[in-house]
Amino acid sequence: MFLVVALCFGAASLSAQTPTYKYGHMNLGNLLETMPETKKANDDLKVFTDKITAKDDSLTKAFGVAYEQLEKDYQAGTVPPVQLEQRKVELQKQQEFIQKFEQDAQQLVNSKREELLKPILSRIDEAVKQVAKDNGFLMVFDTGSGIMLFASETEDVTPLVKKKLGL
Questions:
Q1: Per-residue pLDDT of the chain (167 residues; tens, 9 = 90+)
Q2: SS3 assignment, position 38
């Protein structure tokens, strides 16, 4: 009987010493959308994007007008062949400029988005880390992307794996 009681206490103390690993998850995108700072960032990004779009529309409209004018002049036979080729080259350059502008504009918008969201994401990152540490989470995952948002300090097992692989 004493042996059974001793075994029960021993098993209970072992289970109490076994660490429990807690894993958490959240949807970063959903959280981001609920933050008031995100609405302001999105509004600022829309203003920025609208300015770029207006310039793109203006360039595209000017190209369209020049192209239509060349078509009319050609149809009317008022453009000498040398001038026709020169105007075609100018239109080609104008079209290439618009394409480059659009590519650069996309990069500018992406950079602006990153710039506006960086402080918000940093704030969320700090909060996730603090919540994880305060509540004993070993890892916290973003269910929207599958990315790990937090991992507690752990041991790097690379040397052990290399040894196992004979490296």
A1: 444 444 444 444 544 555 677 888 888 898 889 989 999 999 999 999 999 999 999 999 999 999 999 999 989 999 898 999 999 999 999 999 999 999 999 999 999 999 999 999 999 999 998 898 888 888 888 888 888 888 877 666 677 777 878 76
A2: helix
Asked if 91 contacts 67 with a C-beta cutoff of 8 angstroms, the reply is yes
Q: What is the pTM of this model?
A: 0.70
Joined together, the tokens standing for residue 74 give: 């050609």
Residue type, 32: L
